[in-house]
Write a structure and sequence with these properties.
Blueprint: E1 9-14, E2 23-28, E3 36-46, H1 48-54, E4 71-78, E5 89-92, E6 95-97, E7 117-118, E8 130-134, E9 139-140, H2 147-150, H3 156-166, E10 172-176, H4 180-191, E11 195-200, H5 205-214, E12 218-221, E13 230-235, H6 242-249, E14 250-258, E15 279-282, H7 288-297, E16 307-311, H8 315-323, E17 330-334
Parallel strand pairs: 10-11, 10-13, 11-12, 13-14, 14-15, 16-17
Antiparallel strand pairs: 1-2, 3-4, 3-8, 3-17, 4-5, 5-9, 6-7
Helix pairs in contact: 3-4
């Protein structure tokens, strides 16, 4: 159990350098500034972005670092300038802080803020018993969900939801990579009346069956041709060669959305694949509006998250399972 939030220490899983396993460490419980809250963490989902950081594909601004940015917990102490009460259950996402002053922030595009800071990347995150967070970026969590069920909504759900918004009103939607984000997004898309076509690694029969069980009407290998042209495609798998594959799959005027923060190099492809007013775009981070919208929508559908639970001290096992593609749905660290 964690020490008292008034003093003492907490358990954390710490990254010292890319390529090394996370290290167990006892460290002082952080203290909130006036605009922050101290959160006693109950659960934190494990995201592919965490894997990119640990494996050195993304370089955080600080080391040592506590990863994790899909946090569910309860406020143990509120800073003097925050309106959030102690005891409230909140979620903490990837986007941790923005300046509120730049052109992006002032035009409802805070996700693009040049000075933005990110949970578990610039700031210590949720692979620990406690964390501090900017009160502006803490979301109330619907009562329908347990802590473990809610955790994947904080990034897999949010980035999937933003990707879907940027895909427009596509009726026939392709999804490449059936992991944590896709398993939530398929449910949202079906609720909206869209037809879903799922793409997995070749031969991943279990993943294809999982997608069909969530509502996909067709599932196949990532380089297979779908049974009909798509109106849009969202790529969650961090594989650059999927970009020309998705462009081939969408109809003229279609949109291909790259939903990840990291992707291997995109190979060259003939302009003909893009021609016909097809659109290729990325998704970056999230806005608070995205969070408010998704957390209101999810319990109405209702979205059901499928999780595989690990104790905090088994964070390395969770990352290994994610790296090897053995997680069905989302991996979650159950901290209490």
């Amino acid at each position: 159990m964690a020490a008292s939030s008034n003093a003492g220490t907490m358990l954390a899983m710490v990254l010292d350098r890319a390529g090394l396993p996370l290290r167990r460490e006892e460290r002082p419980i952080p203290q909130p500034k006036s605009d922050q809250v101290l959160i006693r963490i109950d659960a934190c989902a494990v995201c592919r972005t965490d894997l990119h950081i640990v494996d050195g594909e993304l370089s955080p601004s600080k080391l040592p670092l506590i990863p994790g940015h899909e946090i569910i917990g309860r406020i143990a102490r509120s800073g003097s300038a925050t309106p959030l009460p102690e005891g409230a259950r909140v979620g903490v996402p990837w986007l941790a802080w923005t300046c509120g002053e730049c052109a992006f922030c002032l035009s409802s595009r805070e996700n693009l803020c040049d000075r933005a800071r990110f949970t578990g990347f610039d700031l210590d995150g949720g692979f620990a018993e406690y964390t501090v967070a900017d009160a502006r970026y803490c979301f109330p969590i619907p009562d329908r969900y347990t802590d473990q069920e809610a955790a994947p909504l904080m990034c897999a759900g949010l980035i999937g939801y933003r990707s879907l918004k940027l895909a427009g009103d596509a009726e026939r939607l392709g999804i490449y990579g059936i992991g944590a984000a896709a398993h939530i997004l398929i449910q949202v898309a079906r609720h909206q009346g869209r037809r879903v076509f799922a793409f997995t690694r070749a031969g991943d029969n279990a993943g294809q069956e999982f997608a069909r069980s969530l509502g996909a009407e067709w599932a196949g290998g990532s380089h297979e041709k779908p049974p009909m042209p798509l109106d849009a495609a969202i790529i969650f798998a961090p594989v650059g060669s999927l970009v020309p594959a998705a462009l081939r799959a969408v109809n003229k005027g279609g949109v291909v959305v790259c939903g990840g923060i990291h992707m291997s190099d995109i190979p060259s492809f003939p302009y003909q694949l893009l021609w016909g007013e097809r659109v290729l775009r990325s998704v970056a981070n999230l806005t608070r509006a995205d969070g408010i919208e998704l957390l209101a929508l999810a319990p109405r559908i209702p979205v059901r998250t499928e999780i595989q639970s690990f104790p905090l001290t088994a964070a390395n096992d969770a990352l290994t399972s994610l790296r090897s593609g053995k997680v069905r749905g989302a991996a979650v660290l159950s901290i209490r």
